[in-house]
Write a structure and sequence with these properties.
The complex is a heterodimer of chains A (about 230) and B (about 55).
Chain A (H helix, E strand, L loop, with lengths): L5 H19 L19 H25 L2 H32 L8 H22 L3 H17 L1 H11 L23 H35 L4
Chain B lengths: L1 H10 L11 H34 L1
Classes of the chains: A mainly alpha (about 230), B mainly alpha (about 55).
Chain lengths: ~230, ~55
């Protein structure tokens, strides 16, 4: 039987709401510069919110591992990081696709685009590090320490540096009147789709992560390492 | 033949799928994919639960 949890149902309901009402909700005109492509807010942006939340959970389990040396926490930490990385990758692909039509090119070298790419590369290196160590305990300990470093690299790459320079993304300097979108462009009607979308996509990410974790734990059990 | 088809579709404004620039069509397709995705994830979840029970025994 399905491991029944209320939040799995909630995730489905919220995403069904996003994928239906998100297409018909009234969106602001904004001098016709975004048109219907503003609906990307319900799909592209929640990927990044989800990624940050999953990476944060991964960080918490990395710290827990370092405090207890319980190998289960290493499985939790790496699974959340891998699904977070999946969300980030989807975020960067959807962003590039949108930018091709709105900014004229899939990659315009926007500070936030570059920062996001660096942040993702740092997390890819986390898996390179894990793959290169054969000793399980050493791998868990080193990757937990690296996980803490990579989470804190999100601060400059995603949250600080793009805000200090001109950026096409919201939050950058001179973002007023940019061809993208800034926070004030989101109408109330959009917010009542956007926030449920963030919660729905994040819960789906957590669900996939828990599935990943359970598979890893079963594998470890089978190899009698646990 | 194609032009007749197009004219029929253009005149068919009562149909929800055709009105409003056919956005309802996209909406339905995305919803179908979403439902399929959730069914798939739920079935994996179910299978893992079975494996977990059998590994306990």
């Amino acid at each position: 039987m399905l491991k029944a949890k209320w939040w799995k149902v909630l995730s489905f309901v919220l995403l069904l709401y996003t994928c239906t009402y998100g297409f018909i909700v009234k969106v602001p005109k904004l001098d016709d510069r975004l048109r219907e492509s503003i609906r990307n807010m319900f799909f592209h942006v929640p990927m990044w919110f989800g990624m940050m939340i999953l990476f944060f959970v991964s960080l918490v389990y990395a710290i827990k591992y370092l405090r207890t040396a319980n190998p289960v926490y290493d499985v939790y930490s790496s699974s959340y990081a891998s699904i977070g990385l999946l969300f980030g990758t989807l975020g960067i692909i959807t962003g590039a696709f949108w930018a091709n039509y709105q900014w004229g090119s899939p990659w315009v070298g926007d500070p936030k685009q570059n920062g996001a790419a660096i942040a993702l590369l740092i997390y890819f290196a986390y898996f390179v590090l894990r793959g290169s160590l054969l000793d399980i305990e050493k791998r868990a300990r080193l990757s937990a320490v690296y996980n803490i470093f990579s989470f804190f690299m999100l601060f400059p790459t995603l949250w600080i540096l793009p805000r200090l320079t001109e950026s096409l993304h919201p939050g950058g300097q001179g973002s007023e009147g940019n061809p993208g979108i800034n926070g004030k462009d989101m109408s109330m009607e959009m917010r009542i789709v956007f926030y449920p979308a963030v919660i729905g996509w994040t819960l789906l990410g957590v669900w996939i992560s828990t599935i990943h974790i359970r598979v890893q734990l079963l594998k470890l059990k089978k190899e009698e390492l646990l | 033949m194609i032009s007749i088809l197009q004219a029929t579709i253009a005149n068919n404004t009562d149909n929800l799928m055709v009105r409003d620039g056919k956005i309802y069509l996209v909406m339905t397709i995305v919803s179908i994919i979403l439902v399929g995705l959730f069914i798939y994830v739920a079935s994996i979840d179910k299978k893992i639960s079975q494996l977990e029970r059998s590994s306990k025994d």
